[in-house]
Write a structure and sequence with these properties.
Number of strands: 7
Order of helices and strands: HHHHEHEHEEHEHEE
Low-confidence stretches: 1-12
Helix content: 25-40%
Mean pLDDT: 93
Bound molecules: S-adenosylmethionine
Distance between the termini: 26 Å
CATH class: Alpha Beta
CATH superfamily: Vaccinia Virus protein VP39
CATH architecture: 3-Layer(aba) Sandwich
Radius of gyration: 17 Å
CATH topology: Rossmann fold
Structural class: alpha/beta
Length: 244
């Protein structure tokens, strides 16, 4: 990273601070998992928007007969539940045990426990994790802004892709004027308070060895009546096929 780029990142996010964002997220989502839908009534519909954006932009990645998915930072499963009708199976993984418990309870209550299940994990991208499973598609919805080091997470996720498999991320797009987009109440769990630029996502995906980078605006979303509109993006990277 050039000095100029690193200065910009230091200025626009808190990912280089000493605060332990992973532990703060674990504690926050463990505490809020049971009441997440009450506290964020828009979240379930956002999962649907996120799935629709992924399917509209990259339709070839979704095959009900064959696509095996890892949904990373799956939370309580609102995104996974919207995704389920379009794929063969989903393994969810999240740092928060309480979120994973809600995920698995809802999957069982809805009769889909054999098609989707979640585990508590903070993936490193090492042999033996997730029982050695590899995936056709890895999704990560509305979580990149929570990760202190998006490069480390992207490299870990790339490890779990089959050759030719794809990573799809939806997250907050940086505003053209670099405005702060995340309310202060969430700063203890969100290092990337100004969202991500396309360039940042491209260098992150390419740094993890992913090719065919593409990023499209998803939709402008207003989470509260008095909140500013925030643009979201969907980004894709592909693990090179073997022998390429
Ligand atoms: C805003 S929620 C999104 C949940 C889900 N993807 C959805 O769209 O419904 C962010 C999730 O990221 C998880 N998370 C935060 N930091 C994490 C980390 N370092 N590793 C794994 N999960 C993490 C949180 O526990 C939380 O469930």
């Amino acid at each position: 990273m050039s000095q100029a780029t690193s200065a910009v990142h230091a200025h626009t996010d808190a990912s280089h601070s000493h605060h332990d964002f992973a532990r703060a997220n674990q504690a926050h989502f463990d505490e809020h998992a049971d009441k997440l839908e009450e506290e964020h009534p828009y979240a379930r519909n956002f999962g649907v928007l996120s799935v629709n954006a992924m399917r509209d932009t990259f339709p070839a990645l979704f095959d009900k007969e064959h696509t095996e998915v890892l949904d990373y930072a799956c939370g309580t499963g609102m995104f996974s539940q919207a995704l389920r009708p379009y794929v063969k199976s989903i393994v969810g993984a999240d740092i928060s045990q309480a979120s994973v418990d809600v995920y698995n309870k809802q999957a069982a209550d809805q009769g889909f426990a054999s098609q989707m299940r979640a585990v508590r994990a903070e993936l490193k991208g090492e042999p033996g994790e997730l029982g050695g499973a590899k995936f056709d598609l890895i999704t990560c919805s509305a979580a990149y802004h929570h990760f202190a080091d998006i490069g480390t997470v992207t490299r870990a996720l790339a490890f779990f892709l089959k050759p030719g498999g794809a990573l799809l991320v939806t997250d907050i797009k940086a505003a053209p004027d670099g405005a702060m987009l995340v309310p202060e109440t969430y700063h203890h769990v969100v290092p990337h308070r100004h969202g991500m630029t396309e360039e940042r996502m491209r260098t992150t995906f390419e740094g993890a060895g992913l090719v065919e980078f593409a990023l499209k605006d998803m939709q402008a979303v207003k989470f509260q009546p008095d909140a500013p509109e925030i643009m979201w993006f969907v980004a894709r990277g592909v693990k090179p096929a073997e022998g390429v």
